Amino acid sequence: MDQCGYTPAEIDEVTLHDVLALFAYWRDFPPTHEILKCVYRIEQTQDLPITKSKSDPSGIGGLIARFPDGFVRVANVL
Fold first, then answer.
1. Which of 10, 21, 31, 64 could form a disulfide with 6 if both were Cys (CB 3.0 to 4.6 A apart)?
2. Total domain count for the chain?
3. pTM
């Protein structure tokens, strides 16, 4: 729920009743990021973080290594 703007403190205070009500609301009005994931067939993966070094302070070397052919592939969503 933190992708929807809730802070960790707010999440800790949510009751099961509130969660069920929120899920019922999301059935009719899903979060925008979830709609866009479906539309663009994007699935987030747990990639290794891009590390920066003194020789590469921007981290662009890590991006180039992750996408050597320059193409970002989307996940297969059925």
1. 10
2. 2
3. 0.43
Do 6 and 21 fall within a single domain?
yes
When mean pLDDT is compared across 3-7, 11-15, 73-77, the lowest value belongs to 73-77
Tell me: do 31 and 2 sit in the same domain: yes
**Could you tell me if 31 and 50 lie in one domain?**
no
Tens of pLDDT, residues 31-74:
888 888 888 877 766 555 556 677 777 777 777 777 777 776 66
Q: What is d(CA 65, CA 40) in angstroms, rounded to the nearest whole number? A: 24
Asked whether the CA dihedral 53, 54, 58, 63 is positive or negative, the reply is negative
